[in-house]
Amino acid sequence: MSSSDLRSGDRTWAAFSATPPWQLEESAITWLARVDALRAAARAELPQLTKPSTIPPGARVGTVVGRLTVAVVPWLVRKRAHRFADTAASRADISLRLRKAVERLGSTYIKLGQIISSGEGIFPPELVNEFKKCRDQVPAETWETVRSVIEAELGGGIDATFEWIDRTPLAAASIAQVHAAKLRTGEDVVVKVQRPQVATLVRKDLRVMAWLAPHLVGRIPIAALANPPALVELFAETIVEELDFRLEAANMIDVARVLRDLEQDGYVVPRPHPTLVTKRVLVMERLSGYNFDDVAGMHDAGIDTKAVVRTAMVSLMEGAMIHGIFHGDLHGGNLFVMADGRTALLDFGIVARLSPQRRQAFLRMMVSAAINDVNGQLAALRDLGALPQDTDLAAVIKDLRLDEATIDPTTLTGEEMVKEVQRVVKALLGYGARMPKELMLYVKNMVFLDGAIARLAPDLDLLAEIADISMYFTQRHGERIAAELGLDPDTVPTLDGVKAAFGVDNATESLTYRDLQKRRELITKRMHNAS
Predict the structure, then answer these.
(1) 420 burial via Cβ count (<10 Å: 0-12, 13-18, 19+)
(2) Rounded to an integer, what distance in angstroms lies between the CA atom of residue 153 and that of residue 506?
(3) DSSP 195-228
(4) In whole angstroms, what is the distance from residue 22 CA to residue 273 CA?
(5) Is 299 among the domain residues?
(6) Residue 411: is it exposed, middle or buried by C-beta count within 10 angstroms (0-12/13-18/19+)?
(7) Residues 360 and 228 in one domain
(8) Distance CA 528, CA 316 (A)
(9) Which residues contact 274 (CB under 8 A, 6 or more apart)?
(10) What is the pLDDT of residues 225-275, one digit of tens each?
(11) 387 located within any domain
């Protein structure tokens, strides 16, 4: 009997586990009614937090500027003295110095580092690799501190609610830490507890970042297409909502509802507790499974790892294109594979929500890519906020040479590749290109899935898989998409645009991930030697 045959209770409307510790009835969820107002209040606060000020906002500026100065000045001295062997060595040095400064500055900056660490392909590789070290170097709060937060939020003594709580956290992150526990009513749960004072510190730090960012423009190579002020705005959008766990719990319900509507049975969302959720404490169902990197364990258990990857790719695309909602922070610590082969999604602090207009723009971008419509892709990117509204798209196509035949990068020398990248980046910056939040989160997730394929399904034929996914979307959503975008429903997707993105010619019929990785290694080696 399939899992779909066993749906009952709250599983009729949400992608929850088949062994519920409790049933969720929306009318009985005590914290849910205030969520819309709380989310609106968080968004309304953003302009004030990210507005650059002419006067340094408080004493925190001195600490931040001091740490950054200690990090940057020695690098600048060495760079101006030409003491670095090459550009890569220079970037590695400043990345190391920034990572150490971030760790000393505390939770807000560590969180920023963690987000950057998931941005392979968006941020410089040296910065990404260095900031990956921020993921597991956040010291845990003491048990006494954790206990005081729980009791303040839930009211009364901790023993009134919990039979026991493990004093050693399962994980400690920049905003919160999680502990295994058992309720007095017998259910095994996970308790997420916010660090005390972190909300106040985050708001102070955002104001400091907003004041500091304009002074960093053109001075530190933070990202190719996200200048420091834009990066601060994007970061503020992601972190402010994380400071209220009622919003995270609502995200869990919304994503679970979307996955159920899409019949994506390969994903499971833990149930938040209907009453034990407050601003700083979140009690949720405890799930267990294989670490996403435990390929051998999954294979020994008979789990089809290709199916795991396929489910992840389809559900991410489907959630964004059809509902405009998707988990915004996929990484190995935020998901694991259960014994039945389904993937459990964790940590819903960052969830991308596309407005109706932006969802349609995203849908146009994806469909235009599928039918190799370059002008349509650029128009969609403009409407997503990646390009200014008055951008001359024809000029962009000409300047980026998008109307010319695709060049296989492996046929270029290292110097030619470096010049080509510099030319494209310079042209995009000239048009005012930037990375909007939703697009950055989507790209970041796709980069993670790219790495997941390398571990879980390296022999996957990417072209065949993408063709199958295109057919799935055509059969399942084709009429809806065609009607929404005003397209001919008989329009057939091609792989020409996909092949162009991979840098292979149209005659290529098969491309495994191993093949793609060899191409990337060759390109990276040549560019490194040329830098």
Answers:
(1) middle
(2) 60
(3) PTTHHHHHHHHHHHHHHHHHHHTTTS---SS--H
(4) 8
(5) no
(6) exposed
(7) no
(8) 33
(9) 22, 24, 25, 28, 29, 30
(10) 456 787 788 889 889 999 999 999 999 999 999 999 999 989 999 999 999
(11) yes
- Annotated catalytic residue: which of 10, 244, 254, 329? 329
- Cβ neighbours around 268 below 10 Å, total: 26
512 and 371 share one domain: yes
Does pLDDT of 470 surpass 90? no
Q: How many domains does the chain have?
A: 2
For residue 380, pLDDT over 90 is answered with yes
Distance in angstroms (rounded) separating the CA atoms of residues 305 and 513: 14
As a whole number of angstroms, the distance between CA 96 and CA 528 comes to 19
Q: CA angle at residue 36 from 33 to 39, to 5 degrees? A: 130
In a domain, 388, yes or no: yes
Amino acid at 199: A
| Residues 521 and 372 placed together within one structural domain of the fold | yes
Token pair of 341, please?
Answer: 């082969």
| Amino acid identity for residue 349 in this structure | G
CB 231 within 8 A of CB 213: yes
Percent of the chain past pLDDT 70, that is, above it, reads 91
Q: Based on the domain organization, do 235 and 360 belong to the same domain?
A: no
Residue 79: burial class (beta carbons within 10 Å; 0-12, 13-18, 19+): middle
Amino acid at 453: I
The 3-class secondary structure across 356-396, one letter per residue, is: HHHHHHHHHHHHHHHCCCHHHHHHHHHHHCCCCCCCCHHHH
Closest CA to 320 of 494, 434, 438: 438
Give the Cα separation of 114 and 109 in Å (integer). Answer: 9
Q: Model confidence over 396-409: pLDDT tens digits?
A: 999 888 888 777 66
The Cα 528–Cα 124 span in angstroms is 13
Alpha helices by DSSP H, listed for 106-244, are: 107-117, 125-131, 143-154, 198-216, 228-240
Q: Residue 233: which of 124, 385, 32 has the closest Cα? A: 385
Cα–Cα nearest to 317, from 493, 455, 490:
493
3-state secondary structure (DSSP) of residue 315: helix
340 contacts: CB under 8 Å, gap ≥ 6: 3
What is the residue range of 456's domain?
356-530
* Residue 296 within a domain: no
Q: Are the C-beta atoms of residues 431 and 481 closer than 8 Å to each other?
A: no
Condensed to tens digits (0 to 9), the pLDDT of residues 473-516 reads 888 888 888 899 888 766 666 677 677 777 777 778 788 878 87
Q: What pLDDT, on a 0 to 100 scale, did the predictor assign at position 4?
A: 45
Q: In this structure, what token pair is assigned to residue 185?
A: 């009513």
Please say if 166 is a catalytic residue: no
d(CA 497, CA 190): 44
pLDDT for residue 3 is more than 50:
no
